[in-house]
Amino acid sequence: MWLAVIALGVLAGASGLLLGFAAVRFKVEGDPIVDKIDAILPQTQCGQCGFAGCRPYAEAIAAAEADINQCPPGGENGIIALAELLGRDPKPLNPENGVEKPKMLAVIDEQNCIGCTLCIQACPVDAILGAAKHMHTVIAKECTGCELCVAPCPVDCIHMTPIAQTIATWKWTYPIAETAVKPPVAEVAA
Amino acid sequence: MSGLFAFHGGLKTVRHKSESNQRPIQLSALSERLVVPLRQHIGAIAKPLVQAGERVLKGQLIGQPDGYISAAVHAPSSGTVLAVDQQPVPHPSGLPDWCVTLETDGEERWIEREPVAYQTLHHSAVRNLLRAAGVVGLGGAAFPSAVKLNLSGRSERLGTLILNGAECEPWITCDDRLMRERAAGIVAGLRIMVHLLDPREVLIGIEDDKPEAIAALNAACAGTGYRVRSVPTRYPSGSVKQLVKLLTGKETPVDGLPVDVGVQCFNVATAYAVHRAIDCGEPMLSRIVTVTGRVRRPQNFEALLGTPFAELIAQSGGYQDGVERLIMGGPMMGFALYDDRVPLTKAANCILAAGIENLTPEQPALPCIRCGACADVCPADLLPQQLYWHARAKEFDKAQDYHLFSCIECGCCSYVCPSRIPLVQFYRYAKNEIWAQEKEKQKAELARQRHQARLERLEREKREREAKLRQKAPPRADAPAEKSSVETAVARAKAAAPAAAEAAETPAAND
């Protein structure tokens, strides 16, 4: 009997050491679910969800303090992806947070800009370039279209413009919707 | 001599080659106005180097390659630059793109052309010359050739260099005529490629419905050790992976390139362009293009890049009655054009004025009956039916599990589908969506990093401000001990008040 007790004891001790080691060695910093949620969010940093950016919203979702349908830029696809990740049912976007619309680009009317720097402070991704009393401009490549710069402008010289389609961004459309154009197909030989 | 290795699937299509391959290549008349797109290749758009009003010489660089995967663009003739702006280009979207518009002066004054003795040059110097000459693959994809000719990162010697003269699509005969008439030039270009790549063997694959081309290349290859192999006429034998399988028996890996199995493949017209660039010092200014279908005199032209399609059609005698659709490329893989005033590009191998008899009648797609005919003909050995279900349901992950990106969009599946489902359209849609999502992800990642950097910067600035304020405040240690703490507090408040007021007045901008 003692043999069994010793054997089990040794086994338990070894397992305990192993688990203890693993707990230290493979410790996960932060909450991985927050990272996963954050990866789905569009990173617009617009604050329409009621939080100060995408990361805080991701943390709130993980802590069950916010619902998954509060992100208008992420839209329906974003909600479906979040629902899939969290094992919940998708639901329509909460209209209180806004409506889903195509991504826009902020453009500063440089003739009217007075160089007040208010938009620079509002931009969550530092995509506006300029200095006090000098003209500002938006770095189009970095702009997330969050619209946060529009309201602070005292002379209303910032406008959200639709992103123009170019050959580089053009996509083939979903075929069903497009009945007029069919692929060119030749006749088959007998 | 090893035999041939059949690839899976494929089709026997109608040929329609004899319409255009009976006449010799004709030099196209110089157009008064050439519109040269700055994006004629795969990769980044070239940067314009000229402005409106500038005079240019034939062969002068007008677009500089931007990055490694990009190609140079040259003035196809001498004249004056009219504009650098957005013009209609041959693209399935019908959208305009950046072009240099040139008014030709008819004098065809060349830049200084210097033939190069490539044997004396370092390999990278030859590649740089090809890059500067704007040489891209002329089989249709227009990938910069200098990139494909660089195998310096690989340890093993290249096994096989294949020259692709299969030209398997119906109607197209530009490579056929080129091989018949300019075989010596092709072999000269091939020699330069062999010099750069040092392959163990060199094969030239030509479909067996082009006996004259096979004979011409056989004669030109005499004594070189390059072997001309005739391959059965079966669409799409001219697709890279399928031709590699046919000639060498090697299967290209799903996510790989032929070079991963020791094979590199170029179009015959590309070899000819390499010859012109190195042996004649001429950058890529023109190409051979088939103008066929319902035009009065179908034939091949050697035309300057930027020549409007309409002028080439006019030189073929104009349209016949009953043209239903103008297609760039062949009927299997080409795309319909919105306008015939678009310019000739490096990728344009054929202009097909298709009549109603060349197109399938317009009819709505019927439900898939799971007959499996598409899987039988798929040359990439995919399951087109599964890809269709998943692409239709927008389940892009699952479509990728079925190797969506191995699809070469050859059109065989759509061609045999009894329900007339536009299968390739679905695959193109799914591929585009996946690429777009990938781009969105990258943009989101960039925004995340920038937002993070901003938060850190704000935090740092806040700390610095606090540190500054603390410095400004009178140091407590120096305060006389006999003063009561109340007095000290009052003094400190007095000292801090003007500073605080100032801070409040200053717009937050100066923070």
Layout of helices and strands, plus pairs?
The complex is a heterodimer of chains A (190) and B (511).
Chain A: H1 2-25, H2 32-40, H3 54-62, H4 75-86, E1 104-108, H5 118-122, E2 128-129, E3 137-138, E4 158-162
Antiparallel strand pairs in A: 1-4, 2-3
Helix pairs in contact in A: 2-3
Chain B: E1 26-27, E2 33-37, E3 47-48, E4 55-56, E5 61-64, E6 73-74, E7 79-88, E8 96-104, H1 123-132, H2 145-148, E9 160-165, H3 174-181, H4 183-197, E10 201-207, H5 211-220, E11 227-231, H6 240-248, E12 263-267, H7 268-279, E13 286-293, E14 299-304, H8 309-315, E15 323-328, E16 335-336, E17 350-355, H9 373-377, H10 384-392, H11 396-401, H12 412-416, H13 423-472, H14 485-505
Helix pairs in contact in B: 3-5, 4-5, 4-7, 10-13
Mean pLDDT of chain A: 88
Q: How much helicity do the residues of chain B have?
A: 25-40%
Report Rg of chain B. Answer: 31 Å
Helical residue percent band of chain A = 25-40%
CATH class of the largest domain in chain B: Alpha Beta
CATH class placement of the largest domain in chain A? Alpha Beta
Total discrete domains of chain B? 2
> What percentage of the residues of chain B does DSSP assign to strands (E)?
15-25%
- From the spread of the alpha carbons, the general shape of chain B counts as globular
Low-confidence stretches of chain B: 500-511
Major sheet characteristics of chain B? 6 strands, mixed
Main sheet: strand order of chain B: 1-14-13-17-15-16
CATH fold-level label of the largest domain in chain A: Alpha-Beta Plaits
- Give average pLDDT of chain B, whole number: 91
Q: Judging from the principal axes of the Cα atoms, what is the shape of chain A?
A: elongated
Number of helices of chain B: 14
Largest interface, C-beta closer than 8 angstroms, per-chain residues: A-B, 44 and 63 residues
